[in-house]
Known about the structure:
The chain is mainly α and 85 residues long. The chain has three helices and two strands; from the N terminus they run H-H-E-E-H. The protein has one domain. It has helices spanning 5-24, 37-47, 76-83, and strands at residues 64-67, 70-73. Helix 2 packs parallel to helix 3.
Amino acid sequence: MKINGVQAVMVLMVCSLILGKKKKCQSKTWHEVIIDREEAIKKAISEIKDNEIVLIAGKGHEEYQDIEGTKFPFSDFDLVKKYKK
């Protein structure tokens, strides 16, 4: 899978946050980083428990995903409808 510059920066930011947290505490919290946005949304929705929410942030209202300058149809809203329980 190819990633664009924005995705690469996002990966570095997530990794930095996780590593920074681990340096500040001895928590054994497990983290999973899923770069593929659809897979991440699908997994989050599949694991949600009663009285929990899933926050899907960062992309905005656009109905496309820009990968290396090419726009592909992509809607967070449609994915939530597709994968909700």
